[in-house]
Structure formats: structure tokens, C-alpha cells
Amino acid sequence: MKLLPSFTLHRPISLNEALKLLSKLEDSKPIAGGTDLLIDLKEGAYKAKHLVDLGLIRELGNIREANGLIHIGSTTTHAQLVASEIIKAKAPVLGEAASLVGGVQIRNRATVGGNLCNASPGADTATPLLVLDAQVTVASLEGSRSMPLSELFAGPKRNSLAPGELLTEISFSVPPACSGASFSKLGRRRGCTLSLINAAAYLETNGATCREARVAFGACAPTPVRIKDVEELLKGKKLDNQSIKEVSSACYGLVQPSTRVHARASEEYRREMSCVFMKRTLMEALDRARRNMQ
Amino acid sequence: MNVRFTLNGKDVESETRDNRPLLDLLRVDLGVTSVKKGCEYGECGACTVLLDEVPVTSCLVLAPQVEGKTVTTIDGLVDDPLMEKLRQAFLEDGAIQCGFCTPGMLLTAYALLKENPNPTELEVKKAIEGNICRCTGYVLIIKAILDAAERVLAE
After folding, report:
1. Distance between CA atoms of A216 and A225, rounded to whole angstroms?
2. Which residues of B touch A1 (CB under 8 A)?
3. Between B138-154 and B81-93, two packed helices, what is the crossing angle to 10 degrees?
4. What pLDDT, on the 0 to 100 scale, is given for residue A1?
5. Can you give the residue range of the structural domain that contains B12?
6. pLDDT tens digits for range A248-257
7. Chain B neighbors of A8, CB-CB under 8 A
8. Residues B88 and B121 placed together within one structural domain of the fold
9. Please, what is the end-to-end C-alpha distance for chain A in angstroms?
10. What is the rounded CA–CA span in Å between residue B3 and residue B14?
11. Does A11 sit within 8 Å of B61, measured CB to CB?
12. Contact call for A105 and B21, based on CB within 8 A
């Protein structure tokens, strides 16, 4: 049993108040669901004298659609992603990935912003959001800025946010009808497990050939990553079982798994599995794209 | 600091600290020992409580975070008809061995049946994936939850 170190918990009710606390208080960290952070504090991986709880800031906790974009507040829980009618209708791949995180108790607390900012190489919401080409909005007292999600990840368990900055929103364009996306994850068991690797794929097709492709892996590099070389191989290609199998086999040499940053499975095994999981996710994405077009 | 919340239908107020897990507030400060202390890492589900009606692991909730909220343990559901059916099915099916996982298992099952009164076996398995039983009695636990659902529907 490890005890939580002592800290002061602040519970602001507005974003502005939270930003002021984060910039004023030395040695402070935001806390959302706490399902990773509290464990890291127990383990001594982080130290913080002050925790700024984002749980009472209503504006950060909802999902909405406006002008062709889906906006997801950073403290939206995994359970909210699973239950959201907007996500089910427009980006089911994200709800599916969220449903495979932890058990129901964890999904009721853990937030998408926390999952991304915690920056685990195998973060399960990161890969689907990467293939949805998501942008993240970051706020500080100086104002807010947007960047591609990929730029949020600085390294294993490290994000690129400066002190005083807070992730407030994740957004992406509503995928067109000619598209399909899919997510799959390899764990040690089916339920309540961490990813040994995970993969997501997004395809746009005119029925036969691939117009746009985005693919991503988790736990195959120091951060969740898009694999642009595979995307280039897919674009313009006639999509079928054979071509997808060929393209997927290229993953072996393109991923960079390291047991140093991610010790749950060997590099060799994850290279092999990257081909298998890319093929599975691409086939499923293609199937969905075709069904969506009908 | 003091935290005020509704525990099993009653308003309570307790002095606490910022780094006090809800689990310790319940067990040590308020004497609700049906909430079990297992892994304290949010993995075993033994400390499950319903927070505003949804299951959470109380080891990963800080005591001040339940201010103004509703916390329910099995003690608050003694007279609840659905919980009564679940308890009865757990007993009759032999879904209890050492009993350590049982309070958490019952609360997770209760939340499932409230939301989905007629779950499939797969949905039951998915619902209890965050509750570990180290006597490995899952087969009978799943059966008991399905039996309880069937009995509620038969009424």
C-alpha cells in the first residue's frame, strides 16, 4: 500500500479561474479523472504541491457538433464518449476505442483530455483521434492556440504543454459519407487491459480506389504516431484483400517499438503484430466505408 | 476542511483532508466497511461505490470531490427490490466464495441492470470487467446476474 503524498486540492468553477491557479501556484498540476495521475503521485512519478481539479468546470465536459466540426471538451469521460449519440453517428471509432479502456469504473472517471495529456505511447483514444485528423485547443492566461494532436505528444508520458497551459478541447471534421474508420487493440486479455499495441485506420474511397488514408499506431513508438509511409502506399490504390495485405506488411519495417519505453511486449512481437493489426483495421475501415456509402 | 454529501440517502458531513481517498473516508471515518480495500490502484473494483448512480473505484476519488454528490454502497440498497433480487441470486447460485469482491460486484451488477434490464451474457461480462474475483468464481457470478435479470423481468 502506498499513500498519496500531501497536496492542496483546488476546485475552480471556471476555466479562467483554473488558468489563474495553474499560472500562480508553484508546482501545480491539473487533475481531471485522476485515474492515471493519482497512481503516478503514489508511485512518485510526479510531484505536485497543488492539484487543480477540472471536474467542476462545466464548459470543458461536453460534446457538440457545429459547422461541420465535432468539439469534445477535454474533461469528457470515456463513458460519455461511449454513450454519445453524436460520436455513435459520426465517429463511432472513437467510442469503440474508449469502450476498451479500463473497466466501467475507470471509464466513468477517466477523461479524454487526461488520456491524451498523460501521453502514454499506448493511449487508446490517441490513435483514433490521430486518424480523424484531430486538432487540440490549448488555453493559457495569454489566450488560446490550436495545433494538430500529434504535436501534443513530446515523448513517452510527456506532453508539449508549457507550464500554465491547459488542454481544453479536441476537435475534428465530421467524416464524409464515403469514409470508414476502425480501431483494434491487442492486450494480454480481452477486458480491462493495457494495449500491447493498438491501431486505427481511416479510409475514404470512391468504391474501388482509395482517395484518402490515415493510419496510426499506439505503443509502437515513443508516442502514438501516424504512419505516413503506409498512408502514401494506400492513396490511389485499388483497395482489396490482396493490396491491403501487401501494404500492411510494410508496417514491419516502419514502426519503431522499443522495450525501453514500453516493456509489455518485445520489439519483434510488436513489429509482427503491427502488420496483423494494420491489415485487420484497414479491412474493417474499408468495409465500413463501403457500407456508409450505401 | 469539511465535505458534505449524501451517503445512502442521508446527508453527512465529515472533516477530511485534500489527499484522503473516498475509500478511507467511507471505511475509516464513516465506518462503511462493506466497501473493501483491495489494490488501491483502481484495478480490482473491490472498492466500487455508486457516485451519482454510476460505479467508480472509491480509491481513485478524492474525498473533497464528492462535495454535494450522492454516494451509494450496498448498505443503502438493503430494501431496494432490484438489489434484493441480485443478493438472492448470488446466494442461491453460489456466486460468493470468500465474499471480498461481492459488494463491488453487486453494485456494478446493480448499475448494469438499472441501465440494461435484459443484458446478454457478453454484456454482463463486459460490465464486470473492472471487478476482479480472485476465487475465480466468474461463471457463477455471471449466472447470478443473468438469473436476477430474468426474475425481475418475469415479475
Report:
1. 5
2. 40
3. 140
4. 66
5. 2-76
6. 999 999 998 8
7. 18
8. yes
9. 55
10. 5
11. no
12. no
Q: What is the pLDDT of residue B155?
A: 87
SS3 A185: strand
Q: Which of A17, A60, A18, A52 is nearest to B62 (CA)?
A: A52
Those residues whose C-beta lies under 8 Å from the C-beta of residue A117, and which sit 6 or more positions away, are A30, A152, A159, A161, A167
Tell me the three state secondary structure of residue A82.
helix
- Cβ B131 vs Cβ B101: under 8 Å: yes
Are B42 and A55 within 8 A, CB to CB? no
| A196 alpha-carbon distance from chain centroid | 15
Ranges of H-type helices in A136-266: 228-234, 241-249, 251-254
Size of interface A-B (CB pairs under 8 A): 77
- Look up residue B26 and give its DSSP letter: I
Same domain, B72 and B85: no
pLDDT, residue A294, reads 83
Q: Which residue of A has its CA nearest to B126?
A: A191
CATH topology of domain A58-173: 3.30.465
The list of chain B residues with pLDDT below 70 reads none
* Residue of B82, B92, B74 whose CA lies nearest to B140: B92
Residue A146 and residue A71 in contact, taking contact as beta carbons nearer than 8 Å:
no
Task: For domain A179-293, give the CATH superfamily.
Answer: CO dehydrogenase flavoprotein, C-terminal domain (3.30.390.50)
Percent of chain A with pLDDT strictly greater than 90: 88
Domain A8-53, second-level architecture: 2-Layer Sandwich (3.30)
Neighbours of B6 (CB within 10 A): 16
Looking at the structure, tell me whether residues B7 and B67 fall in a common domain. Answer: yes
CB contact under 8 A, A109 and B60: yes
